[in-house]
Amino acid sequence: DTAVSQTPKYLVTQMGNDKSIKCEQNLGHDTMYWYKQDSKKFLKIMFSYNNKELIINETVPNRFSPKSPDKAHLNLHINSLELGDSAVYFCASSSPEDLRFGPGTRLTVT
Amino acid sequence: KNEVEQSPQNLTAQEGEFITINCSYSVGISALHWLQQHPGGGIVSLFMLSSGKKKHGRLIATINIQEKHSSLHITASHPRDSAVYICAVRRGGADGLTFGKGTHLIIQP
After folding, report:
1. What band does A1 get if pLDDT is binned at 50, 70 and 90?
2. Residues A44, B48: C-beta atoms closer than 8 Å
3. A104 contacts chain B (CB < 8 A)
């Protein structure tokens, strides 16, 4: 019974396209996140979302936008994809006592 | 300079050895996490610490808030412990984590 799920697992697309990655958690956690892991395996926060409060990392381009239809979902939309967007994107969710990561989505922009 | 520094970056040890990975941070935090990432890519939270010490099986994590330092210890290391171990801190509330660059651990049989 998957706690944090992401779809798709792999995404290959061309520059300039718009794409979305979906994330769902069934843990009842209040906070959800998107993290980016670059080619050097360094992880960085992109967004956190808690009770309709969105905290944005100031370095994230505005081509990236999170959308939360409800507490269990935080989707990531990316417009006008660029080569540098190629990375692994991890969704995560947390409560005060627990933190779980999704399996990751490997995005390749060609 | 990164807000979270880990050492060593790479560590190769023999099966059975006692392993220590260190983490220092430069900001005020509400919690510190130790994460494990296997070659397959999945990330697992091993410990969440705000003070003191926690133990889970062969893994022990400690934190000294005054010194802004944490350590992860692995006793009786085993090849299945081979992974990247990442220290990450949360400043507070719903803030996301700030990560160290990770320690790549290899345990040889």
Report:
1. low
2. no
3. yes
